Amino acid sequence: MSVDAATVRRIAHLARIAVAENEVPHLQEELNAMLDFVEQLSEVNVDGVEPMTSVTPMAMKKRPDVVNDGGIPDDIVRNAPATEDHFFLVPKVVE
């Protein structure tokens, strides 16, 4: 894949970056070099390689999935303009 000068200008416009006309060829070369590198990555054989979260083996920390009220319902609704039985009261907006 190759980027032309018009594409560089379009990318700059979409990114809201002011690019002078004399900078376009340099940016075109840089973008093409990045795309070439990405194409090289697609050639790597990753069959049998497991996804990893880090370069060092580790297990993700997990907490138990327990439903609770937080233990502080009074503190949660304290600043609400209207409450009832630890619930927020809101005005009716749909008839």
TrEMBL record:
Gene Ontology terms describing biological process: glutaminyl-tRNAGln biosynthesis via transamidation; regulation of translational fidelity; translation
Keywords: ATP-binding, Ligase, Nucleotide-binding, Protein biosynthesis, Transferase
EC numbers for this chain: 6.3.5.-
Transmembrane segments annotated in the record for this chain: none
InterPro entries per the UniProt record, alphabetical: Asp/Glu-ADT_sf_sub_c, GatC
Principal EC category: ligase
Pfam families tied to this protein: GatC
GO molecular function, one term: transferase activity
Catalytic activity: L-aspartyl-tRNA(Asn) + L-glutamine + ATP + H2O = L-asparaginyl-tRNA(Asn) + L-glutamate + ADP + phosphate + 2 H(+); L-glutamyl-tRNA(Gln) + L-glutamine + ATP + H2O = L-glutaminyl-tRNA(Gln) + L-glutamate + ADP + phosphate + H(+)
Subunit description: Heterotrimer of A, B and C subunits.
NCBIfam families to which the protein is assigned, alphabetical: gatC
Record function comment: Allows the formation of correctly charged Asn-tRNA(Asn) or Gln-tRNA(Gln) through the transamidation of misacylated Asp-tRNA(Asn) or Glu-tRNA(Gln) in organisms which lack either or both of asparaginyl-tRNA or glutaminyl-tRNA synthetases. The reaction takes place in the presence of glutamine and ATP through an activated phospho-Asp-tRNA(Asn) or phospho-Glu-tRNA(Gln).
Family statement drawn from the similarity comment of this UniProt entry: Belongs to the GatC family.
Protein name: Aspartyl/glutamyl-tRNA(Asn/Gln) amidotransferase subunit C
Gene name, Swiss-Prot/TrEMBL: gatC
